[in-house]
Amino acid sequence: MRLKIFTLISATLALLVAPSIGVPSNTLVEVQKFDGKIKEGSYIVKLKDNVSKSSHLGWLGKQLGSDKITHSNWEKGLLHGFAGKFSEKTLSVLRSSPDVEYIAEDGIVTAFSVVTQTNAPWGIARLSQDARLANQNSNALNFTYRYESVAGAGADIYVVDTGVYTAHTEFGGRARWGATFGGYPSADGNGHGTHIAATAAGARFGVAKQASIIAVKVLSDAGSGTISDIISGLNFVASSAAASGRPTLVLLALGGGVSLALDNAVNALINSGIYVIVAAGGSATDVGNTSPARVPAAFTVGASSIADAVASFSNYGPGLDIFAPGVGIISAWITSPTATIAISGSSSSAAHVTGLLAYLISRNPGATQAQIGALLNSLALKNVLTGVPTGTKNYLARNDIPG
């Protein structure tokens, strides 16, 4: 008797879990967004492995009645499914089908091409050179910078600083105001935020020339602010990034004494999948004494000169991840839409690495933060800098198109 009962129950369970073509699901399949241009109304449908495509398409035809669909014929392809241009009705039917594993927007991609810029400042040029620059005039604007044309497209860089002069020609409409915290005017009256934003993603002076810039003002026009306002700014970034779903980087070219609260906020941001790049600081001391530069999971960046020497002011230590150009860096300024100025500091170094990370993200869609970080380290020039303190990595930032 027990055996009979067990058999009956087993048979009943088998009926319950058996796949059934054409039975709508109560849960709608989410449509995966493509981070870039799309072919409007076109989608890729991935069927579950145990589903017969011909049976599914037959069921779909019955559901649509007179509505006909045109779809690809991937009989022996790498993907078990099909693609096509679907009406809203068709898409709704597909989303309700238990046969469907996922649906994705049909994106448009283009061939990468190497761009050679011959009117570049020395900082970005150094990122694409293996050897020390032959021209040692940091004021010159005739250096060569080589990069892939994708150049950070699809990535959002949040500059949490003094604001950004979004109307500057360097940004070409790619910069926008995000939020202001601390009761300050919603404009960059200092210049620091504008300068580093253009170094990260400016059209001429920047690394990631296709990335978007979002200004988050947390510092006064005198260049100072409170930790609480900075944390408010980081909270804004977290919510905005979650809403956009785009690759997100935060440039934090600020710091002070040790703050557990700020460190915790930065760690939380990183754990949510956001890249945080931090200036090492300019006190010629160990980064372990400075927040948020001391956060291990952040990308902490020190400053180097055109002579491939560690800047005399740069912080250092085991917590520093990489060096990048930070002495005599020419970039955008706030006095006019075309104004420029040269400044020095690890802020500029962090901006170079922020742009480089955005660039690498766009070159490697789908890569994890750990993978991008490993790529940054593997590409870096090793042991080329002079004046590196003992216990500090001798890594100089470089892209993947060296000249």
List its salient traits:
403 residues, alpha/beta, Alpha-Beta Plaits, Rossmann fold, 2 domains, seven-stranded parallel β-sheet, five-stranded mixed β-sheet, 9 helices, 18 strands, 27% helix, elongated, disordered N terminus, serine protease, S8pro/Inhibitor_I9, hydrolase, signal, PCSK9_ProteinaseK-like
Structure characterization notes:
GO terms for molecular function: serine-type endopeptidase activity. It comes from Meripilus lineatus. By secondary structure, the chain is α/β, with parallel strands linked by helices. The chain has 2 domains: about 20-105, 2-Layer Sandwich (Alpha-Beta Plaits), CATH 3.30.70.80; about 115-395, Peptidase S8/S53 domain (Rossmann fold), CATH 3.40.50. The protein has helices spanning about 1-15, 55-65, 90-95, 120-125, 190-200, 225-245, 260-270, 345-365, 370-380; strands at about 30, 40-45, 70, 80-85, 100-105, 115-120, 145-150, 155-160, 175-180, 210-215, 250, 275-280, 300-305, 320-325, 330, 340-345, 380, 395. α5 (about 190-200) packs parallel to α8, α6 (about 225-245) runs parallel beside α7 (about 260-270) and α8 packs across α9 (about 370-380).
